[in-house]
Design goal:
The protein is an alpha/beta fold. It has twelve helices and 20 strands.
Length: 456
């Protein structure tokens, strides 16, 4: 048994990442300039041409309703520089009390605003993950099959030539609440947008795979792991799960594992995990708020289980909370202009750098490498393995052991990575034996989580 002591003594060499210039300064091709976005050959990820695409989404549901093009540009540039690649936003979000669209999307000026924002994202090299409308339109009968087909035709007349669009049907709604509408909508969208990818944003703690997995228009699955703790299974609110649902609590990695077992195999992603600075459980403002360490956990758990990427969210940004509003939703505490700079969003970029530094599309979950077996809930050690690397995520910073005997006496180079600041700390060569124990460093700020990266 080899023990690897990760506790820093002041003598270990430490690798600091090279300073990274803002993304707008780095001259590179836009994603779609490598080729059309499509499903990878192994059906588990997306790619542009032969170039792997890692989905790092942000939730900006009310971007078009709340922001001018100038305001949107500030937000979009902020996200581009933090390595986000997909912005999820709703074109038509809600109805007024008299049944008229509250944001008047029938007016040319509204759609011109949408056009300008989509074009800004295109200039920055960002995909827009567009929801045509929120799921409430189907739930209350406002969006019928006939209207859905007409709307699809309208969208095609406006956006069929935009290379930076990914369509996301649904919008926090069960597919069973509008099966006929969504199927017809999806099929027409596939006909009109053959070069755009299409997904579906479902109700909390469900996945699009439950209703549409075999639909030919659905290119990838999306699940919403939601905003509840393990102990908040039922809260007597509108978003409670049905008795027929399989709920996994905070274990969002289980949705990935379930979707990955379905035939045919399709990529999957957590399209709405717990947001930074949203009330745990949504409804009781006396409850604690989800913090940056929580959103990191959701991200690493799902990605290291084989998700095609991840979507981050912040309570203030998803609703673009403004100073003139007297109150917002779900206990919002910050203006969106301040929330732009909260640490969770910046920390998502460290995950992007990590995954794109390895051949992630040919990686796979590998918890069988845990010499002491897997643990439950927060004690879980996520393990992801590729041709020449192995990545572990340890949320609580607890000791764990790996069985590295499969490397047949070869030596692996080990590094810790702090997911709160992106700093890599060289640990040294590791003898690849059947029980190699790792002791994560005790941290005094920014949570207890660590990433272990082995290169061999």
């Amino acid at each position: 048994m080899q023990k690897i002591n990760g506790r820093l003594t002041g003598t270990e060499p430490i690798d600091h990442p090279e300073p990274v210039a803002p993304r707008e300064v780095i001259m590179e091709k836009k994603f779609w300039e490598y080729g059309e976005l499509q499903v990878s050959d192994n059906n588990r990820y997306l790619k542009n041409g032969s170039r792997p695409f890692f989905w790092m989404g942000d939730t900006a549901w009310l971007l078009f309703q709340k922001c001018s093009p100038d305001e949107a540009k500030i937000y979009l540039k902020n996200r581009k520089e933090k390595q986000f690649s997909v912005i999820q936003a709703t074109l038509v979000h809600c109805l007024s009390g008299d049944g008229i669209l509250a944001d008047d999307p029938s007016l040319p000026s509204y759609w011109e605003n949408c056009d300008k924002i989509i074009d800004i994202a295109r200039e920055l090299g960002l995909y827009m993950g567009l929801l045509p409308c929120w799921g409430s339109f189907v739930r209350d009968g406002s969006l019928t099959v006939e209207k859905a087909l007409q709307y699809a035709d309208f969208l095609a007349s406006r956006y069929s030539d935009k290379p930076n669009i990914i369509w996301i049907l649904g919008g926090d709604v069960r597919g069973s609440e509008g099966m006929e509408v969504f199927r017809a909508f999806g099929r027409r969208m596939r006909e009109l947008f053959p070069h755009h990818r299409i997904g579906y944003h479902p109700f909390g703690r469900t996945s699009s795979s439950q209703w549409f997995h075999e639909e030919p228009w659905l290119d990838f699955n999306m699940f919403q792991s939601g905003h509840r703790r393990y102990d908040q299974l039922s809260m007597g609110n509108w978003d409670d799960a049905l008795s027929s649902d399989t709920c996994f609590g905070e274990d969002n990695w289980r949705y990935v594992k379930r979707d990955a077992a379905m035939i045919p195999l399709k990529p999957t992603v957590d399209g709405e995990p717990s947001y930074e600075w949203i009330v745990q459980g949504l409804h009781d403002s006396t409850q604690p708020y989800w913090q940056a360490c929580d959103v990191r956990r959701y991200a690493y758990w799902s990605v290291l289980e084989g998700a095609m990427g991840h979507t981050y969210g912040h309570n203030a940004i998803m609703q673009f909370f403004l100073p003139e509003q007297t109150e917002g939703s779900f206990g919002v505490k910050h203006l969106w202009t301040a929330a732009l700079h909260h640490e969770g969003s910046g920390q998502m970029g460290y995950l992007v750098f990590l995954m794109t530094s390895v051949d992630f599309t040919n990686g796979h979950p590998a918890e069988h490498r845990l010499a002491w077996g897997q643990k439950e809930k927060y004690h879980r050690i996520s393990v992801f393995e590729g041709p020449d690397y192995l990545i572990c995520y340890d949320y609580l910073g607890e000791d764990f052991a790996l069985d590295l005997s499969f490397l047949s006496g070869r030596t692996a180079e080990a590094r810790w990575m702090n997911p709160a600041n992106g700093v890599y700390s060289y640990l040294g060569p590791v003898a690849c034996c059947s029980e190699t124990v790792f002791h994560p460093v005790t941290k005094y700020a920014d949570g207890t989580d660590w990433v272990l990266l082995l290169r061999f």
